[in-house]
Write a structure and sequence with these properties.
This protein is mostly helical. The chain has 2 domains: 135 residues, Leucine-rich Repeat Variant, CATH 1.25.10.90; 101 residues, Leucine-rich Repeat Variant (Alpha Horseshoe). Helix content is 63%, strand content 2%. Strands 1-2 form a two-stranded parallel sheet.
């Protein structure tokens, strides 16, 4: 399948795109990014390779290519180079936004089939709302979201949670709270942050709904998740929720 687009260069190869990205390589910036994205032994990004491009540089390269095509994007997602994978997810988001119904379904299915390769938090956060969140109707799609949330792969669980940002933007908070309740015992700090972030965004829409969720779950929420969720509350209220958690009860 050729993805729709209006940019200049069509039908590029993986090598064409990697070559354009490589022109912007910055070893000093790459060193910074390797530390920032925790690529050391035992860290969540272990082994991830960086060329040192900044996001606007990757997007500028993307703007030069109209139709990478799913085989090419699959090849980029298989690359050990982080910026190549970022290019791929950004291209998929663009294709979904511009596509007709058939293209959107194809992109959605392809994205889920490649979810294990969307393997760092920025790749997830830049793509899950614009593909999974846009494809699943607000408040629906729970078979898909539930399956992702149960995955042993951290990044698939994060896709489920962060995808609900699109639903929040549309004023529907149901899946956000539903997933948050199922992810309370997730062992990963990155999931505590993602879930707390989505709860905070939901609270901006409906503070009472967030407080109701906290009244039932604050006592067992991981501290990081709770701190993220209540970040926009007044200081006195933040202290109260944190003290409830430390005391082991909600209210």
């Amino acid at each position: 399948m050729v993805l729709q687009g209006t940019r200049r260069r069509r039908n590029p190869s993986v090598a064409d795109i990697l070559g354009e990205l490589a022109k912007h390589a910055d070893p000093a910036q790459a060193s910074v990014l390797r530390r920032f994205f925790k690529t050391g032994p035992g860290e969540y990004g272990e082994g991830d390779e960086f060329w040192g491009l900044k996001v606007p540089q990757v997007r500028a390269v993307l703007a030069r290519f109209a139709d990478p095509g799913l085989p090419v994007l699959g090849g980029l997602l298989a690359s050990p180079v982080h910026e190549a994978r970022f290019f791929a997810v950004a291209a998929l988001v663009r294709a979904y936004a511009r596509g007709d119904a058939g293209t959107r379904r194809t992109v959605f299915d392809f994205y889920l089939s490649q979810a294990g390769r969307i393997d760092n938090w920025d790749l997830v956060d830049a793509s899950a709302p614009g593909i999974v969140g846009r494809h699943l109707p607000p408040g629906k799609g729970r078979p898909v979201l539930g399956r992702l949330a149960k995955s042993k792969i951290l990044w698939e669980r994060r896709i489920a949670m962060v995808s609900t940002l699109e639903h929040i933007r549309r004023g529907n908070l149901e899946n956000t709270f539903w997933l948050a309740g199922r992810l309370l015992d997730d062992p990963a700090d990155l999931m505590h942050k993602a879930t707390g972030w989505m709860l905070r965004e939901a609270g901006k829409r409906d503070g009472d709904a967030l407080r109701d969720f906290l009244s039932r779950h604050a006592a067992r929420m991981p501290r990081t998740m709770l701190r993220y969720a209540i970040e926009k509350f007044p200081p006195a209220e933040r202290r109260r929720w944190l003290s409830c958690r430390e005391a082991g009860f909600s209210g």
